[in-house]
Amino acid sequence: MPAGGIKITPVETPAQLERFIRVPMRLNAADAAYVPPLLMERREALSPRTNPFFEHAEVQLWLAEKDGRDVGRISAQIDQLNPQTAEGVGHFGMIAAEDDPRVFAALTREAEAWLRARGRTRVIGPFNLSINEEVGLLVDGFEAPPMVMMGHDPRYAAAQLEARGYAKAKDVFAYQCNVADDLPAPILRRIRKGPPEGVTLRTLDMKRFEAEVRTLTEILNDAWSGNWGFTPTTEAETKQLATAMKPVIDPRLAFFAEIDGETAGFIVLLPNVNEAIADLHGKLLPFGWAKLLWRLKVKGLKTGRVPLMGVRRKFAGAMRGQLLPFLLIDAAAQAARRLGYERYELSWVLEDNLPMRRICDAGGAKVYKTYRLYEKALA
Question: DSSP of 82-104, one letter per residue?
Answer without folding.
Answer: SGGGGGTEEEEEEEEE-S-HHHH
